[in-house]
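Structure in, sequence out. Go:
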């Protein structure tokens, strides 16, 4: 963790980005699934 070379910083940044992207994808999938379920049940009156 104490390594502050540009290479290690770049690696950390790319890992962070990958984590964020994965979280975004999961959120998007969850929302899509919710919307599909809502559409099937038809209880929301949309």
């Amino acid at each position: 963790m104490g390594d502050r070379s540009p290479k290690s910083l770049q690696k950390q940044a790319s890992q962070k980005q990958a984590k964020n992207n994965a979280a975004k994808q999961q959120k998007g999938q969850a929302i899509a699934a919710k919307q599909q379920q809502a559409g099937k049940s038809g209880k929301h009156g949309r």
